[in-house]
What does this fold into?
Amino acid sequence: MKERTALVTGASRGIGAAIADRFRKAGARVLTPSRAEMDLRSTDSVNAYLSRIGASVDILVNNAGINLPGSIREVLDRDLEETVRTNLVAPLLLARGVVGGMMERGYGRIVNIGSIWGVVSRHRRVAYTLTKAGLNGLTRALAVELAPRGILVNTVAPGYVNTELTRKNNTEQELAAIRESIPLRRLGEPGEIAEVVAYLCSGKNSYITGQTIIVDGGYTCL
It folds into this structure.
C-alpha cells in the first residue's frame, strides 16, 4: 500500500477514521474529503471533486453512510432519498469516477462498507437494509466487470461496532442485550474492521473479489 493514493469517505470518526489511520500507517496517501469538499447527496458535488482527484486514486473505500431508523409506514420521502443517495448512489458515482485511472495502471482496490443489515434485517431498518443489500449487488457487478483490469472489489459488512452511530441508535439497555446476543459477547472495535479493509486493499490480496465479508463476532451465525 506504500505510496498508493486512497480515498476514504466518512473518515471523520468511527470506522472511517480507523481505516484512514490504518492506511496512513501502511504508507498510503489518504484523501478524506469533508462534506464541504464533497457532499455525497449531490451528484454535481461528487463529480466536481472527482474531476480534481479521480484519476489519481488507487484505493477507494466507500465508508460514509447514514441510518435513519423507521418502519415501512414511517419512512419519509426525504429520508428515503437521502439514504439512497448517500449509501448507494454515491458509491456508484465514486467508483465510476476512479476506475479510469485504475484501469490505466492495471491496479485498483474498491471496498464498500456494508452492514450485516444488508444480509439479514432488523425491525425499523427498511431504508438502511434496502441500500446495504443494494451495495452488495453493486460489489458483485463491479467485481465481474473490473476483474480483467486488475481491480478487486469487495464489501466488508460489520456487525455491531462500538461507534457513535451504534450508540445513537440503541439505548444502554439495548446495547447490553446486543452484547449478550453476540457469541464473542462484545461489540467490535473500529480498528478491527480497519484491519480487514487494509488486507483487502493491500497487495497481499490478489484473489478475493466480489465477496461480502461479514465481521460481526459470530452474530449472524445464530
Remarks:
- DSSP finds seven helices and six strands in the chain.
- The chain has a mean pLDDT of 97.
- The beta strands are 5-8, 29-31, 59-62, 108-113, 151-158, 212-215.
